[in-house]
Write a structure and sequence with these properties.
The chain is of the alpha/beta class. The protein has 2 domains: 208 residues, P-loop containing nucleotide triphosphate hydrolases (Rossmann fold), CATH 3.40.50; 157 residues, P-loop containing nucleotide triphosphate hydrolases (Rossmann fold). It contains 16 helices and 14 strands. The strands form 2 sheets. A 7-stranded parallel β-sheet has the order 3-4-2-5-6-1-7, with helices on both faces. Helix 12 links the parallel strand 10 and strand 11. The longest helix is centred in the first third of the chain and has 18 residues. It starts with 9 loop residues before the first helix and ends in a 7-residue tail after the last helix.
């Protein structure tokens, strides 16, 4: 479906066209008409499927209709709550890009920066407020935020909100909003606690579910390398020298792992940027800008720090550490397959991570192609039937030669 086929205002369609977007993604095709019809909606879709535009565009359309008939545009009409600063900035960029030919104003508030500039912007009034939970509650308690005029309440990346411990704050925020409002929830997955939250917050919601095999994983080449953990850095360097080119994001499980790999790659002459939770917001923003502007062609990140960051034209993903949550794998590889584009992901699996691969393959319903011609190869584990606990003996009472053979380990 083309965006021009959706009942969106001409000013929005013009902005979308200038962003060189023409075909709506599956989640956009399903969610936008429901939101325009003023339904409460719960959307489950993986990273990279275009969820932000799926709520930003219909909200802008509905606000534009309302503000053209009224001069009261200085009270908050739409509140988008999101778990991280990076996501808040990204959502704000989307609202500004799509709404540039409207009179709708938007701002983002988040921690890690001074309160005063945010207070000043809020005092002047905005139509759309994008906020992280902690900073929003701080400013509300200080009397700088009035949520009594909210028409749209959006929870973005709700499962990540749960993982980061923000659900209690979200419940407090929702109670500060009017009972009569349109409520939207967007999440990669819908775990039990999120489902419980939706039941208490939503009135007659319509669910939109986009399966992983319909979107991200289907468009991305996936390659798997078995090797000892100690050789992962060596394999990474080998592939960077011989196989992988362009803009690359490397995922590590821990902050320490990010710093250690960054140090190794810089020593080998690579231009590297990195982000994780211990870095300041200024440093994280600079790292992302350096990567976007090609001052660094490699970005190393933890999952939480990179969640939701919209960086176009990423050529490859390296899963240096295999994630223990299969959905996280789909989030990661989606960085190289934004909005239906193709990409490629390289995954390094050490013996202790083999069970994670099984879970990932079960989720995406396909086997990941194993590469067996690299210098650090160890064989894929074989799942054999357990042998009976008996010992065969020869006539002299000695163990047979077959029983003496030790089972081969794959690591």
């Amino acid at each position: 479906m083309q965006f021009s086929e959706l009942p969106l205002h001409a000013s929005l369609l013009k902005a979308i066209s200038e962003e060189r977007f023409h075909t709506a993604t599956l989640v956009q095709q399903k969610a936008i008409p429901l939101i325009l019809a003023k339904k409460n909606v719960i959307v489950s879709a993986q990273t990279g499927t275009g969820k932000t535009a799926a709520f930003a565009l219909p909200i802008l359309h509905l606000l534009h209709e309302k503000t053209t008939a009224s001069n009261d545009v200085k009270k908050i009409k739409a509140l988008i709550v999101t778990p991280t600063r990076e996501l808040a900035i990204q959502i704000l960029e989307n609202f500004k890009s799509y709404g540039k030919y409207t009179d709708i104003s938007a701002t983002a508030i988040f921690g890690g920066v001074s309160l005063e500039p945010q207070k000043e912007i809020l005092a002047n009034g905005v139509d759309v407020l994008i906020a992280t939970p902690g900073r929003l509650i701080d400013l509300q308690l200080q009397g700088n935020v009035d949520l009594s005029t909210i028409d749209f309440f959006v929870l973005d990346e709700a499962d990540l909100m749960l993982d980061m411990g923000f659900i209690t704050d979200v419940k407090k925020i929702e109670k500060l909003c009017p009972k009569k409002k349109q409520t939207l929830l967007f999440s990669a997955t819908i775990p039990e606690k999120i489902d419980e939250l939706a039941k208490t917050t939503f009135k007659n919601p319509i669910k939109v579910e986009i399966n992983p095999d319909e979107t991200t994983a289907k468009n991305i080449g996936q390659l798997l390398y078995y090797l000892p953990k100690k050789n992962k850095t060596d394999l990474c360097l080998h592939l960077l020298r011989n196989t992988i080119n362009g803009k690359i994001i490397i995922f590590r499980r821990t902050k320490f792992g990010v710093d250690k790999l960054e140090e190794s790659l810089i020593k080998n002459g690579y231009k590297v940027a990195s982000i994780h939770g211990d870095k300041t917001q200024v440093i994280r923003n600079k790292a992302i800008e350096d990567f976007k502007n090609k001052k660094a062609n490699i970005l190393i990140a933890t999952d939480v720090a990179a969640r939701g960051i919209d960086i176009v034209n990423v050529d490859a993903i390296i899963n240096f550490d295999i994630p223990n949550i299969p959905e996280t794998y789909v989030h990661r590889i989606g960085r190289s397959g934004r909005a239906g584009k193709s990409g490629i992901a390289f995954s390094f699996c050490s013996p202790d991570e083999n069970s994670y691969i099984k879970s990932i393959e079960a989720l995406i319903e396909k086997k990941i192609k194993i590469i067996d011609d690299h210098p650090y190869l160890i064989s894929k584990p074989k799942h054999t039937k357990k042998q009976p606990n008996t010992i065969s003996k020869n006539k002299k009472g000695r163990k047979s030669e077959a029983s003496k053979k030790k089972k081969k380990r794959w690591y």
